[in-house]
């Protein structure tokens, strides 16, 4: 079946130069953007129940932009003023730069890894092992960071500051796609929650990352496209190749 309409479960790209638009133009395909999940802050009451004092800590470890947004949002709600001496350790440079949205960027207080892997950030943390670290996290997370910090005997506290929830479809909202593209297991959970009687039939499903691929299969669905691969390191590259092959290279 020729692919004519694709749903990408992410927010609409901010730039019109996104490769998704190139794909749509190249193959005459309609691509819609609609997140299946959304991230929301825990309430100040829920946070207080964790009995975590933010100001008892001298450094914060951020693994995502979501963590930054919800950390500073909670601080504002709790009327906590973060001291200028606070140090920030970020999973990537992009995440580190995002802190500028909330505080003046000072390289001497902000550290980041080069590869985007937790292991790459640990040496910087170990160099500052006299600090007391706070780790803002989601209600759904793995223990990789916790295990590494424990292994290196780093004084730290984990605090749930945000959660991932289903971004429910409204009654009458269209859902007539030839292909669905997912980026997290939560997206698959949301699909099954919104459409408990979902029958895949000829609908193609693509995903990014092995954990999402596993979630697709665990839900009893057929996975038609998995990225990244050696030949397609990005979702857009994989999607381009897939549509080209499925639609037999027909162009608009």
TrEMBL record:
Alphabetical list of SUPFAM superfamilies matching this protein: HemD-like (SSF69618)
Pfam families attached to this UniProt entry: HEM4
Gene Ontology terms: cellular component: cytosol
Biological process per Gene Ontology, one example term: uroporphyrinogen III biosynthetic process
Record-level Gene Ontology MF annotations: uroporphyrinogen-III synthase activity
Domain Tetrapyrrole biosynthesis uroporphyrinogen III synthase positions: 24-236
Protein name, UniProt field: Uroporphyrinogen-III synthase
């Amino acid at each position: 079946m020729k692919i004519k309409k694709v749903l990408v479960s992410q927010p609409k790209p901010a730039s019109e130069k996104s490769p998704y638009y190139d794909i749509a133009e190249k193959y005459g395909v309609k691509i819609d953007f609609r997140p299946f999940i959304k991230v929301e802050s825990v309430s100040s009451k829920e946070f207080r129940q964790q009995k975590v004092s933010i100001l008892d800590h001298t450094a914060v470890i951020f693994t995502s932009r979501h963590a930054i947004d919800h950390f500073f949002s909670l601080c504002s709600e709790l009327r906590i003023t973060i001291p200028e001496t606070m140090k920030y350790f970020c999973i990537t440079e992009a995440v580190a730069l995002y802190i500028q949205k909330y505080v003046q960027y000072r390289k001497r207080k902000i550290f980041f890894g080069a590869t985007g892997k937790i292991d790459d950030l640990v040496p910087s943390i170990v160099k500052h092992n006299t600090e007391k670290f706070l780790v803002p996290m989601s209600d759904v997370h793995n223990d990789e960071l916790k295990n590494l910090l424990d292994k290196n005997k780093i004084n730290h506290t984990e605090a749930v500051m945000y959660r991932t929830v289903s971004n429910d479809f409204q009654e009458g909202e269209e859902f007539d796609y030839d292909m669905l593209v997912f980026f997290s297991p939560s997206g698959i959970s949301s699909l099954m929650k919104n459409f408990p009687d979902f029958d895949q039939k000829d609908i193609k499903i693509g995903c990014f990352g092995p954990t999402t691929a596993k979630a697709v299969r665990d839900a009893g669905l057929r996975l038609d496209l998995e990225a990244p691969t050696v030949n397609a390191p990005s979702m857009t590259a994989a999607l381009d190749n897939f549509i080209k092959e499925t639609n037999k290279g027909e162009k608009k």
